[in-house]
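Hey Z.,

So I finally got round to the flavin mononucleotide thing we talked about over coffee. Here's the setup:
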Amino acid sequence: MSAIFDQTIINNMALSNRLVRSATWEAMCDDDGRPTGRLTDFYRDLAHGGVGLIVTGYTFVSPEGRQLHGKMGIHTDEFEQDYRKLTGAVHDAGGKIALQLVHAGGQTDTKNAGRQPLAPSAVEVDQFPEVPAELTRDEINRIAAAFGDAARRAKEWGFDAVQLHGGHGYLITQFLSPLTNRRTDEYGGTIENRSRFAIEVYNSVRSATGSDFPVMIKLNGADNLEGGLQIDDAVYAAGKLSEAGVDAIEVTGGTPVSGARGPVRKKIDAPEKEAYNMDLARRIKEAVTCPVMVVGGLRSIGVAEAAVNEDGVDYIAMSRPFIREPGLANRWQEGNLAAATCISCNGCFVAGLKEGGIYCVVEKEEQEKR
Ligand SMILES: Cc1cc2nc3c(=O)[nH]c(=O)nc-3n(C[C@H](O)[C@H](O)[C@H](O)COP(=O)(O)O)c2cc1C
Ligand code: SF4
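And the result:
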């Protein structure tokens, strides 16, 4: 039996295989961030498809941390019943679900944030649509506390884990990156200082959820931008998070302005192009004691098995393959080992932006031809 189908445990959370649905914004929430029945159905389908762990789309912890429309929010107690239905549906289908927590920081605009965006420094960089306002220490403390409140709600409302979004140029990465963090106080300068916010957010979440609840992070191994976060600094931050008690690190890379080296690369049409964050994941794996997940272009079971058996990575995370094939894990487990059919065209993302919800446009076209 393939190592991909090992049963494992992350801090009391039992998982039936090593496949993870990486966080994916579905654009299926109400304008205020309330999850809908349609989103619940989407997660139910994924759970039925056999993936070991579903990580939700990024979910804002505070209204000014909102980015794209249709994004989930967990900044208020008002959505309790909607979230309980969602987690209940996943559990009834035999799945496990982690909530991804985010603050977009400067990587949003006034329209979505409802105010001038907030960031570590008021800098004009390609990553930011507008020049943001510099966070005060009180605001930093408030946001770290908002992550804690959000995680407490997630735990109470039935999520099996939370994952902090420390990748793709959002607020945690903005603190880690020297390009976006030009502060001269204890949050800026050395990597020890630039990691402080990530550790404070982690500590806030841990104290809100207790020691027996899985708290994970998706972390950029590098921003792939001149002047941005580099692997040596990411290794330092990962080591500190692991020492502090984080339960798993999913390694990603890039930001929306990293071009061909962004987080969601196109045309993954050969095994050599798969697992494009593997070098970063290997470096982080060497530096930490917690399990490591790798995401980015994984498509074939052979590459996934090599990541586990040869590189010692613990989990294989995928996003787009599960949009096209929510049943991919079951298909592989049942012995149909053909690579994921996703062609990495990013048409699903465009559908999320323009059509009020993601779906696989290629699969739809093919179904229409059949
Ligand atoms: C439609 C879409 C939405 C995404 N939303 C998120 C998100 O909310 N949070 C996140 O960490 N990554 C998000 N990503 C990035 C994926 O999680 C993943 O890191 C990236 O797509 C590479 O993996 P893949 O090649 O398996 O798709 C999104 C990707 C897509 C295509
Ligand atoms: S539209 Fe379909 S084939 Fe294209 S990237 Fe999205 S899931 Fe993959």
